[in-house]
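User: Predict the structure for this protein chain, please.
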Amino acid sequence: MLSVAGLDQLPPVGPPEVALAGRSNVGKSSLINALLGRGDAARTSNTPGRTQQLNYFSLDGGRLWLVDMPGYGYAKAPKEQVEAWTRLVFAYLRGRPTLRLVCLLIDARHGAKANDLEVMDLLAKAAVPFLPVLTKADLVGPTDLRRRLDEIEKRLARQAAALPGPMATSAKKGAGLDAFRARLAAYALPEGENRP
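Assistant: Here is the predicted structure, written as C-alpha cells:
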C-alpha cells in the first residue's frame, strides 16, 4: 500500500495499525504474504536487512493496517543508514496514535535471542502492547515448540506491556494462521465503520 522512509511520509491517521517487528530473516514478509493470501505482497529475501522502510499493507478490507518494520540485529548497510532506520522505527513506536499492537516475531528454531529480549524491554518501557509470535514453527518438533512457548510465557510474566498467550505460526504450512488472523481481527475497525 505504502512505503515510508521518514516520519513526514506517514499516512494520515486512519484505521488501527498492527506492526510486525523481529530480527532480520525471521520471516516477517512471508507471514504477511500468508496473512494476505498473496505470495508477492511483501518481498521476501534470503538477504538479511532487505526491509529498510515501514511498509504498509491493508488487511481485512482496509479495516486494519499491517506495518512491516525493518528487521533488527543485522543490516548490510552503512552505519548512518542503520541509525536512520532505527530512529524512524522508534519514533514511529513512540508517536503513532493508531498503533494498537506490535507483534514481535521470533524464529521458533532459536527462541528469543538477546536482541529480542532487548526489544521486549524497550516496548515495555514505551508502554506499547506486544505479542510474541513464533515463526517457522514447522521447522521444529512439537516438544521443542512447546518449550519455546513456555520459555517466552515465563519471560512475559515480567513484562507489563506483554499480552499473554504467545502464538506459533508457519507461513509455509499455514499452521496457526487462522488463530493469528482472529487475534488481529480484534484490533480492526468494526464492519461498516467509516474508513479514511
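Residues 2-185 form a domain with the Rossmann fold fold (CATH 3.40.50.300).
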